Amino acid sequence: MKKSKMLWIFAGVLILFNIIMYLTRWGGENVLAVVSDALPVLCALVSLICLFYAFKGFKKFDFAKIAWLMIFIGITADFIAETIYGILEIGLKVDVNKVFPTIADYFWCFAYFPLFVGLAIMFFGYRKSGFPMGNMKLYGLIAAICLVLSASIIYYLLVPIMTDSQTGPLAKFFYLFYPVGDIFLVIPAIILMYITSLFGTGTISKPWKYLAIGFICFTLADLIYSYLSWKNLYGSGNFIDLAWHSGYLLIGLAGLYQRELIESFKEGANV
Amino acid sequence: MKIYNNPYTQKIYVSLVPLLGEIVAQGVLKSQSNKLGKDSESLNHSDSTKIVEGLKKGLSIFMGSEAASQIANKIGQIY
Q1: ipTM of this predicted structure
Q2: Is the dihedral of CA B45, B47, B50, B51 positive or negative?
Q3: pLDDT value at position A268?
Q4: Do A64 and B64 touch (CB under 8 A)?
Q5: Handedness of CA A10, A185, A54, B23 (dihedral sign)
Q6: Segment A189-192 long-range contacts (CB within 8 Å, at least 24 positions apart)
Q7: Given an 8 Å threshold on Cβ–Cβ distance, is A268 in contact with B74?
Q8: CB contact under 8 A, B21 and A198
Q9: Closest residue of B to A119, CA-based?
Q10: Before A114, cis peptide (omega within 30)?
Q11: End-to-end distance of chain A based on CA atoms, in angstroms?
């Protein structure tokens, strides 16, 4: 069985378990907190293993390999952040909402840089490739959507946080960093999504497609989290966790598809 | 699926479609032909070296330069 198929099955079981646990709240709040903290660690670990597998598939150290390396570094930082967060909340019984930002937040914020660089390398690499860019009017539409999204985030999220007198400057910085970082991440992700749509059923774009969907899941979850966390409404067992878990698993799938793509052409199966 | 009258173009197109999809495969053939100062229907075997080079460049960002070279060379040997 292909590794990607195995990950699909694993992801299906994991997400189903996640939904059942969040709906039933079986075992009470303590079990829910453990599940809520352990699942992102597990999903991020799976994702980074798959990304490393993809990275190792490239022989020459070219732009494609660097792009995947950047994404691997970003997800590794996310994994470290998820692990620290879990240890703080479950192991050390720290109220992470009260001590915000924690060390984990520094890793989450750092992760945006390599992730953005990775996606940007893919986009500019594609632009340089001479392959069709698609309908330029649609890029205008994407730019308009991003502008409306940015304006909404600034108006509904950033301005209220900035003017909140009860939040300290360091906490404010981190509350603001996440949505701004998400805007920078979701723009290349949406563009990659559009580029992959040009390929239709073409196998070459499959890894990028899953990568883009994964990052869009992250952005949605992060934006909702920023709002809920600032309003003190976020707690263990919140359904937005599903978007993070799915995001990690989709990015992991992208890594496996990337490796399978490289190997299939080395074997000459698709020519 | 688009049908090219030129059998050489058609063979390259058919080999590219599973990989790139119909739209991008047509776009690649068009852009590579334009670079050679031709249209897609007038490509011939003597153009294969330049087409292979163009394909390598385009495929590299997706699958790395080594795998891109292998696939582009195989497509170049089609005719």
Answers
A1: 0.85
A2: negative
A3: 55
A4: yes
A5: positive
A6: A189/A119, A189/A215, A189/A216, A189/A219, A190/A142, A190/A145, A190/A146, A190/A216, A191/A123, A191/A139, A191/A142, A192/A119, A192/A122, A192/A123
A7: yes
A8: yes
A9: B61
A10: no
A11: 22
Task: Give the pLDDT of residue B49.
Answer: 84
Q: Which residues of A touch B62 (CB under 8 A)?
A: 64, 204-205, 207-208, 261
On whether the CB atoms of residues B62 and A264 are closer than 8 A, the answer is: no
The three-class DSSP label of residue A200 is: coil
E strand or H helix at B56, and its extent? helix B48-76
Tell me: pLDDT of A245 over 90: yes
| Cβ <8 Å between B20 and A261 | no
CA separation (Å) from A111 to A45, A174, A205?
15, 13, 24
Helices A241-266/A63-86 angle, 10° precision: 150
Please state the domain extents for chain B: 7-76
Domain boundaries, chain A: 3-266
Task: State the smallest CA–CA distance between residue B4 and chain A in angstroms.
Answer: 19
Cα separations in angstroms, B45 against B9, B11, B12: 10, 11, 11
Residue with tokens 């995001």: A247
**Which residues from chain A sit within 8 angstroms of residue B59, using beta carbons?**
129, 204
- CATH topology classification for A3-266: Rhopdopsin 7-helix transmembrane proteins (1.20.1070)
Find the mean pLDDT for residues A50-73.
94
Instruction: Over range B26-51, report the average pLDDT.
Output: 87
- The answer to whether the Cβ–Cβ distance between B60 and A63 falls below 8 Å is yes
Say if CB A184 and CB A225 are below 8 A apart. Answer: no
